[in-house]
Amino acid sequence: MKQRLSLLLIAALAFTMLSACGSKTEPDVPASAVPQATALSNIDYYAEKLSVFSDYNIDAMVLFGDNLYFTSENKLYFYDPSENEIAHLDYKPNEDCYIVGLQVVSGSLLVCETAPWDEKIKMSVIRTVDSGGRDIAEQTVYNDALFGGIAKFDTDKNLYFWSDGALTAIDSATGKRHKIETNASIHLIAVDADNNIYALVTLNGKFQIALVSQKEKNAQTIMELPRPSSNYAVYDGGGEYNLLYRADNILYGINAVSKTITKLFDYIDIDLAATYTNTMIQIPDSSDLYGVIYHAKKNKNEAFHIMPLDQADVSEKTVLKLALFTADTDGTFMTHISDFNRSNVKYKIEVVQYDTRTLDYFYGFANDSSGVQKFILDVTTGNIPDIIDVSSLPVELYARKGLFLDLNPLIDADETFNREDIYPYIWDALDIDGHIYHTLSKFQIYTAIAKKPIISSETGLMPDEAIKIADENNIPYIYDVSAEYFLKHNFCAYYAEKFINWDTGTCDFESADFIALLEMLKRFRLGENSADISADFHNTDNYLLYPTSLWISPLLDLEDEWALVNWEDDIILTGLPNNQRERGMIAGEGPFLAISSACADPDGAWEFVRTMFGEEYQAMLFSRLIKSNSKWQLKYLQDTIERRRETGQQFDYIMPRYDKLISLLEDSHTLYRIDYALYDIIVEEALAYLAGSKTAEDTAAVIQSRVSMYVAEQR
Length: 715
Fold this sequence. Notes:
Layout: H1 2-15, E1 37-40, E2 45-53, E3 60-64, E4 67-72, E5 75-80, E6 85-88, E7 98-105, E8 108-114, E9 124-129, E10 135-142, E11 150-153, E12 159-163, E13 166-170, E14 177-179, E15 185-191, E16 197-203, E17 206-213, E18 218-224, E19 232-238, E20 241-247, E21 250-255, E22 260-266, E23 277-282, E24 289-295, E25 300-308, E26 318-324, H2 332-343, E27 347-353, E28 357-359, E29 365-367, H3 370-380, E30 387-389, H4 395-400, H5 408-413, H6 424-430, E31 442-451, H7 463-472, E32 477-482, H8 483-495, E33 500-501, E34 506-507, H9 512-521, E35 524-525, E36 543-550, H10 553-556, H11 561-567, E37 571-573, E38 585-588, E39 593-595, H12 602-609, H13 615-620, E40 626-627, H14 630-647, H15 654-666, E41 670-671, H16 676-690, H17 696-714
Helix pairs in contact: 1-3, 7-9, 8-16, 16-17
């Protein structure tokens, strides 16, 4: 299937290199026996920033009178829209308790508190307070702690508590608790203006809304929802909607009575990022909403008033479509886009999601080709995005077909961009025959470590050298990972295209070098998954090499076990055995941004793409990853050292480790690239060889034949 998708795209490119004028598509709502309907909003929204909050996250928000009330751990706050200010209420929770629920019932605020899970105190209480946070009543609802999760109330003050996929109801009158029965997996709960409780559930892989019944002690599904590809949330309803539902970056209003789903807006369209939207609420008798959104760059929360847009106030900007194949799980990239859209007076980025990973039941992701199929369709019909995230595409193959622009002319013409700020080894890894087709803003280094003095030279190992050293030292295995895992995740990325000349269309898989690589695989752990291998590198003589990934965190953490393994004196960073003696492979984390050759405004597209190397985005990146901009990476380390100096912490070990990391980076010239069709050929044949059905020479010949045919088809 993957190879067929590649061929389809190449065929599409042969017919279609048109201007990028793609149109938006609404997410499909899957067909189901559950009653449902879809309605689209005719309202355009915009977001007005109200306040910036620091030092706390927002756990719950309700509308009480004209004010918004919200909680954060053990604090209660209110926001007065007329004054545009936040106040901390004089509310003191019980000892060691924190707030897990907040709701307006019968003209009062109900606050649910629970104690941490320890032996000192175990209780959960409901407190009734007035608009100033002053106590009216208190009731112990359960003589134990409600561990984690969130709580909601119905009009009878019954408490519904969600934690770890299960929903429990606590009777307010008796304090008894019982489980809410359902045949679905419960993810989140929300409450509407009439205090009906709803649960977001998955059943047979489909996202649905269920109505929770205290009387029946169950939750019955009532309608199906658009499926998210990466992240989701539900928020309490208000106005015409029983609840609000976010799938990725789209906010929907759900009317559970009429079974309608209304798309309210795409967060990016109103210049917001939604991954860490803490809460959202609609104002009754109004289309206005209030929301609190975590800003990944500032590490703070921002409150927004989201309201209908007066078209007379719309400023004209050139819209650049961005094809995204990466799930923005930490909110960094979407936050960056929203900041760019707010600050740039000329251009606006519009995201078209082609995520090839779909949410798998409750946790995790599963590979899915539908994103690539949708992209191929858009290419075929001329709706080619201006900017393309190539993290799930075979870059070299598509670049040779003319899909991407060479970024070098744009870089050289940009007087504000300094190529020397980027690690030179990144440019080496990105280079394809003298061309740079995409960015790489953050990465880690795949390598292997070995013990001294068994291996004493940091020059990297050839495959035959690794076998010889293992034999001389009676070491049965070269590498502590199963051969199958290594084939899928390292072997092809390291070696496959080194035996292909795309210019001439020739392959060299029957060479002695490739046969030596195959023979080396015989000395790996066979027939086991990597998760089953638990050898202790410090205490075993079974392995010559041990796999690891290097990033920034071990440089900073003296106590981290991996930090000590990676950098102590008796360890050498030698890398995987390979014919080029490279000691590492650069593994970037997406998105990797390329500019379409069909883009009508390459300069505008570059104006956004170059920001991936800029200080604002680089500073926002998760600290464990290595920043591609060496200037900002070094500044980050120096700032860390200075902070530790001020607190009396140790710091002298940081820069020597950094120097070792750079030395390893100098010997890492391979970029982890994806070409699933090519990899499938090599993995299939190599596994057959490892099973003993063929010799190394026969396997190499079959790979040579199949890959040669594949290369010829792609050219």
